[in-house]
Design a protein that fits this description.
By secondary structure, the chain is α+β, with helices and mostly antiparallel strands. Helix content is 21%, strand content 28%. It contains 3 helices and 8 strands, in the order ββααβββαβββ. The strands form 2 sheets. Strands 1, 2, 6 and 8 form a 4-stranded mixed beta sheet that branches. A 4-stranded antiparallel beta sheet has the order 3-4-5-7. Helix 1 packs across helix 2. The N and C termini lie close together (7 Å).
Length: 173
């Protein structure tokens, strides 16, 4: 299997604590793998029709959604696990925590193979020509990337700091 190669860009950013302007690194992506692309690619090693495979994926996602609604941790096998979670500020006293200050989140913990692929990735500086390859969402992971061992948060409605994301290209062996 080819080694994962992450294209890294230096981006202007603010220090979250001091608000001082500076720089951080982020991953440039090679675009987005759409659901239909994944179905098509997965279907090349099966006799299932693309529509059957798509339906199977959709049924699985319906089950995942229902299990998350029940407050369960969802184990996606070798892909990883999705955990329902929340975020809030820190408070000195228990009674100071208000429900309005708590935001629901999902945490994703990559499976061993996925995490190993990211951790073994070769980092290369992006070239000016790579800027054109960015996707419509700005091209990669948020500033700071994945500093938490494969776990990232995903906030409902997008965003989040899921770190390891899709910012890669295949490197030759």
């Amino acid at each position: 299997m080819a080694q994962l190669k992450l294209k890294i860009k230096k981006s202007g950013s603010k220090n979250p604590v001091t608000k001082q302007l500076g720089f951080s690194a982020r991953v440039l992506t090679n675009g987005t793998a759409e659901f239909d692309d994944i179905v098509k690619d997965a279907g090349r090693n099966t006799t299932m029709h693309k529509a059957e495979l798509r339906m199977a994926f959709e049924l699985c996602m319906d089950s995942v959604t229902e299990m998350l609604k029940q407050g369960m941790i969802v184990d996606l096998g070798p892909i990883g696990k999705i955990y329902p979670s929340c975020s809030s500020g820190w408070y000195e006293k228990e009674e100071d925590i208000k429900l309005a200050d708590v935001k629901p989140q999902l945490y994703f913990r990559a499976g061993d193979d996925v995490e190993a692929a990211i951790k073994a990735a070769k980092l290369v500086w992006a070239k000016a020509s790579d800027e054109e390859e960015e996707d419509e969402n700005g091209g990669g992971t948020p500033s700071g990337g994945d500093n938490n061992g494969g776990t990232g948060s995903i906030t409902p409605g997008g965003g989040g700091d899921n770190g390891g994301g899709a910012g890669f290209e295949s490197g030759g062996d």
